[in-house]
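It would be a great kindness if you could assist me with a short task in structural biology. Thank you for your consideration; the sequence and its C-alpha cells are set out here.
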Amino acid sequence: MACLLCGQRSRLVCSSVVLFSLWTSKTHAQQFPTQESIESSRIFIPREAILPPPNTSVESPSPPSREILLERVEFSDTPLDQALRLFSEESKLVVVASDSVKKRLISVSIRNLTATAALKELARQSGTFYKLDRSTGIYTLYDLKERDASAWDSDSLRQFEQELNEAFPDSIVRLSSVGKQLIVRGQAHDVVEASRIIRLIDAEAKSKKIKPDDDQTRTTTEVQQSGGLFGGLSLLQASEPELTVIDMLTVTGDQQVSLRVTVAEVDRNAARQIGLNFGVTNDAGTQVFQSLFGSGGLAGGNLPTMLDNGQIQLAITALRQMSLAKTLAEPTLTSLNGQEASFQAGGQFPIPIVSGQTVGGLQGVSFVPFGINLQFTPYITDRDRIRLKVSAEVSNRAQGTAVGDSANIGGAIVPGLDMRKFQTIVELREGQTLAVAGLISNNQVNQSDRVPFFGDLPVVGRLAAFDRISMREQELVILVTPELVHALSSEERPPLPGTDIFEPGDIEFYLGGHMEGTRNEDFRSPARTDFHKQQSFYNHRDVFIVGPHGYSECGPQPGVFQ
C-alpha cells in the first residue's frame, strides 16, 4: 500500500513522518484540513524507532529450548573441576564438584547422549554421584563414600525416585519418608515389575539412614515388619534409626485367573480270531483224537458243531471284536494371582491290605482315589500374559480283562486304573489355548498256533491252526486355556445345571412315559399325597405351597398377545 501524503510504499507507516491531526473545535472537525494545518501538525519520528534496519527480517519468538544432545564428550587424565567447566559450557548445565573430588583425575568417554544422561554417565565413570539444588539449579558431584554414609535427605530421595521411574517407564513410583518409615506409593505395570521395584528400593534402603532430629537418640537393632502387597520388607539398622520399607504399590487389572483344562481321548480296539478245535470219540465214548488250539479248547469256540451222532465235536472260532472308548473331561478352577489352587472330582475304591504284626496278619482296607485331580498356580507377568505351573490327573477304573486291568488279592478282584497325568510350566496370554501334552499310540499284536507243515498249507491249513490279530489305536490331547476373570454381579448370574429339568406328574409318568416334566415347575410328589392336591397342581391352584409363587416380574413382551 502507498502513503496518502508522500506516495511512498510502506508496510507499516510512512518512512519519514507520522502525521497527527489535532482538531481544536467542532467546526474544524467538520472541515477538511488545509496545507497549513498539516504542516503545523507534522511530528518527525526517526525511522529506526519504528522500522527494523534495512536487509533484516522480523524474527518470530524462539521456541522453548530443548535438552542439548552431546555427540562426543571425552576427557583423559583431566581434573574433575576443569572437566566440569568444559562440560557445563557444552551442556548448558551448571555442574560443580565438591572439595573432596575436585582435583580427582578422570578419564571418560561419552557418545550421543542428552545433557542429563551424559551427566549421569560422567558421574558413573568418575566414581561420583550428584545432587541437584532445585533452588539454584546447580548440580554438585560428591564422592560415592559420602553417599554411602550420608543421610537420605529429600534431594537424594527425589533423585532416587526419578531414577526408578526412568528404569521402569511403565510404572509410576512415588517415595516419601514418614518418621523412620520409607513409604512406596504408585502403580506398577504388573506384579513381577512391582517385586523388582521393591527389591531395588530394599537394596538401596539398606545403605541409608533417616537423618535424626537433634533430640532423637539412637535405638538398638530391631526387626520390623510391615504389611503390603508382598507381605512387607524388613530392614536391620545397627546403631542407627531403623528404616522400614512399606509397600503400598498397586497393580491394576484383574488379579484372578480361571484355568480350563481339556482332556480329550479316543481309544479304538479291534480283534479278529479264526481257528478250529475238534475231537473224535468211538462208540464207547472214549476220546480217540483231539486237536486243541488257543485257551478255550472244545468249549471255547463261538460256533460249536457235532457230527456223527456226537462222536465228532467241532469248535469253530470265527470272531471279530471291536470297541470304542471316548473320554472328555474339562475341569475349571479359579485362583488368585500367585496362589495355589486344587480341585478333585471323582471317588475312591477299596483294596484289601494286610496290617498288624500277628501271624495271620490283620485284614484292612485302603482307599485309592480316582477321577479328576487338578492343581495349578498362576503368575500374571504382564497385563494379559500368564505363567502357569499346572499339574493334572485324569484316572478311571479299568474295565478290560487285559494284564494290569485287575488283580486277585486274597480272592478279591481289585480293578486297575487307567491314568493320564502331566505336570508342566508354561506361559501364554489370556484366552490362548496351548496343547501341553498329547499322545498317538498304535499297538498291533499277532498270535498264531499251528501244527508244523500242515498249518502252513493254504485253506486246508485252517484245520490245523488258530490265528489271532489285535489292533489298538489311542489318541490323547490335553489343552489348557487361562482367562482373567472377575466376580459377576447379581443380574449376571448364569443359570445353574439342571434348572431346565423338572419332575413329571403322575399322568406324565404313568401314562405318557415321560422321565421329565413338561411344565416349568416340579410336580413335588412328596407334597402331593392326595387327589385334591394333585388336581390343584394340574389346575394351577397351588395355594398350599409356601414361598414365592405367581407370575414373573417381567413386563409384557413385544409381539405377545395381551
